[in-house]
Amino acid sequence: MTFLLTGLNHKSASLEVRERFAISEADLPAAVQRLAQHPGIEEALILSTCNRVEFLARTAPEAVGLTGFLADYFHLQPEEFRPYLYEFRDREAVRHLFEVASSLDSLVVGEPQILGQVKEAYATARAVGAVNAELDALLTRSFAVAKRVRSETAIGSSAVSVASVAVDLAKKIFGSLAGRTVFLAGAGKMSELAARHLLAHGAGSLLIANRTAERAQRLAEKFGAQAVPFSELYDSAGMADIVISSTGAPGFLFRKEHAGRFLHRRRNRPMFFIDIAVPRDVDPAVNELDGIFVYDLDDLQSVVDSNRADRGGEARQAALLIAEEVERFMARLQTAEVVPTIVSLQEHLETIRQAEIDRVRGRLGQLSPEQEMAIETLSRGIINKIMHTPIMTLKSAARDRQETTTVIDLVRRLFNLRERSAAAKQSANESTGVRD
User: How far apart are CA 246 and CA 22, in angstroms?
Assistant: First the structure.
């Protein structure tokens, strides 16, 4: 069994590259199901957010990687994306997942949204049957690690967020947010968070347009805002001072000609676009117009980076905690790998013991309770002595993954142990705390 994680994020690839790999919420179930069916993949999960697209899998040991799947799925040549990818296996894959879930690898260190996004990706993968055993144990452990990081460090306190950065930039542009109109194009969680921050800092009215009208209406009721039909997007957006866009549209939603008309209607009053969509909703050419200010995720990142040093100490403390949790999980995982063989050996030798007692019982005649006890004690003692060395060898081998496979194979051959049933494996996993 091998854990394999590959992907790209805000550190390894620009927004222009990342948006080519974005997988929409609607497409995610089919994508993860397809990944799980790829040769050599036994379980799978895909995490696609505005700042990262990652593919996590449990693979057969001989699996070579996910380059073939990525080329196939995204219709790209490997050389087009290989420079932007990172790949982790086993211990490093576990470490990276724990860091992602705990927000140490986020654009905004300490932000809470990523854990919810990992949980949603997990729920999607489970729903289509792509996560069901060892990957389940890894993911549920990552949630516990993230919770521990937030409770034992101050990593999440006073964290600078994309939304708070957007507020600061808007203040610099307008001086004051008092009475400013905010327009939400799309009703996703990140745009909702940004709007909440803007309104909390004095922005006035809020307009919301979404392709699904009911979702826009629900969000409008939450904010006391006005929902507008998506068909009136270009008529309504021009009334806003601040446009937050995150629609998941396949191409640019706002182009230079749209922005030019907005400026004309606004009599050249400034307009601020916060584009947090991947792929981007706002054509970068819009920024060429005087009076229009466009910030996408890469622009916001440069502002966030300047605030990272304030949380450096907490991040280092969290990293030490995660390193401890990685060692604990790997030890538990490796112990779990030898448990089925230990149980099989115990069952095999117990079967032999019982068969031998039954075979000679007829020749021994009627035995007293004391004699029965003596035979039971003697035979069990012999079996325990036989089992001692192979069991200790298996437990010792659990510290080294490569040695574990060799020793398991050797013990199974020596004692002619057959593969155990799924039910027996489930029972063994539960005895070690690994879910199946």
Answer: 13
Q: How confident is the model at residue 428 (pLDDT cuts 50, 70, 90)?
A: very low
Tell me the pLDDT tens digit for each residue of 371-419: 888 988 999 999 999 988 888 888 777 666 667 778 888 888 888 887 5
- Torsion 189-191-194-196 (CA) sign: negative
Domains parsed from the chain with CATH numbers: 2-158 (3.30.460.30), 162-306 (3.40.50.720), 335-431 (no CATH)
The answer to whether residues 36 and 130 touch, using CB atoms and an 8 Å cutoff, is yes
Strand order in 2-9's β-sheet?
41-48, 52-59, 2-9, 86-89
Say whether pTM exceeds 0.90: no
Secondary structure percentages of the chain, helix, strand, coil, to 5:
60, 10, 30
Give the DSSP H/E element, type plus range, for residue 292.
strand 292-296
Q: One of 23, 36, 44, 50 is an active-site residue; which one?
A: 50
- Identify whether the C-beta of residue 322 lies closer than 8 Å to the C-beta of residue 99: yes
Please state the rounded mean pLDDT for residues 340-363: 86
- The pLDDT assigned to 145 comes to 96
Q: Residues 182-191: what's their mean pLDDT?
A: 85
Q: First vs last Cα of the chain: how many Å apart? A: 14
Instruction: Verify whether residue 50 is a known catalytic residue.
Output: yes
Find out whether 76 and 32 touch, Cβ atoms under 8 Å. Answer: no
